[in-house]
Amino acid sequence: METALGLVMTGGGARGAYQAGVLKRIGEIERVRSEGNPFPIIGGASAGAINGAALAVGSNDFFAATQRLAEFWSAIQPSDIFRSDVLSQARNSLTWIVDLSFGGILGGGNAQSLLDASPLRSFLSKTIDCSRIQANINRGHLYALAISATNYNSGKSYLFIQGKKGHPMWNRIRRVTQATKITVDHLCASAAIPLVFQPVKLQAGQGTAFFGDGCVRLQQPLSPVIRLGAERILAIGVRGENLEHQKESAGDRKNPSLAQVLGVLLNVMFLDHLAADVEHLERLNRLISRGQLSQPGTDGPEKIRPLSTLIITPSVNLSELAERHQKDMPYLLSYFVSGLARDVAACSDLMSYLLFTPRYTNALIDIGYQDASQRIDEIETFLYADAGRKERVPARRK
Length: 398
Description:
Layout: E1 4-9, H1 16-27, H2 30-35, E2 41-45, H3 47-57, H4 62-74, H5 78-81, H6 86-106, H7 119-127, H8 132-138, E3 144-151, E4 157-163, E5 175-179, H9 184-190, E6 200-204, E7 207-212, H10 223-227, E8 230-236, H11 258-270, H12 272-289, E9 295-297, E10 300-302, E11 308-312, H13 318-325, H14 331-338, H15 348-354, H16 358-374, H17 376-383
Parallel strand pairs: 1-2, 1-8, 2-3, 4-5, 8-11
Antiparallel strand pairs: 3-4, 3-7, 6-7, 9-10
Helix pairs in contact: 1-4, 1-16, 3-4, 7-9, 11-15, 13-15
């Protein structure tokens, strides 16, 4: 019986353009073009949620969907994501100053984010028609789309799922699943980088709550697609393994600037969990292969099947790439971020998430495309490991 294939894409702000480049190359595989969407299960968080939704919307024509996704990222502008005009920046800065300086006297809590990301909703509404997701599910082009977001009111991680009737549902400590129709608001919430973009109001159970970036509490990014039935998983990360921060100077370290601290925090939230989850899964696979791990069944011990993974990550340091493109940012934002650091290098990590500029995103698309091209035979073999047999309907995992 053929195993279900899942796609996982984590967050990373502007780094999501790298994923678009990888997907564009995958979409050009001849068999993908002739047979359609190879990923019946798609999971995403933050920028990965936007990319995942775009694929779900176009899953009836996967090749065209990946082409459109690359075009989406190649033409993106900062003004499509956040307000960067003088008036908006000044108003936002003044709100922070008042809250921090006089909040105890006048009452604070008015500052929500460093940037006003209200343009993002309008931009996504024009480019991603979420109403098409259900039609693709009904026609068998897609089994399920899962979008992660963090409930700021309860502190719980939410997984919003739109899938075929009868798809698995589960709840765990501080994790909630909710079957719903995915909308642009869910994408905006999942992509709302903490402190940088404002929270988004969503329906949660019987009421509403405010949500932010899906990567905040998503410590096991592979888990959603596994629970939805995937037994082979292609994951696209946005951090090159062992590439970033590998150079250590021999001299004394300087006291880190605020920009450096924010960059490290974003790296931990966006980039480190995927590699750790894959490492954990590989360890479980080794235990299974040795017969040291089994799961009780109704008729005696039932072995857990091993899960196959293939992870694609950048071959270059994206922080260094962002450092070279920082001059492309709107002047006021560049001025503000530079004010939090001692030099351009010190804020390169932070800027790598905020550089929604065509030259930077096109460079990321090209890198993703080339990285996938270098491994295209490996990718194709992984996608069609169970060639010749009809895709099964994913069963709920215990």
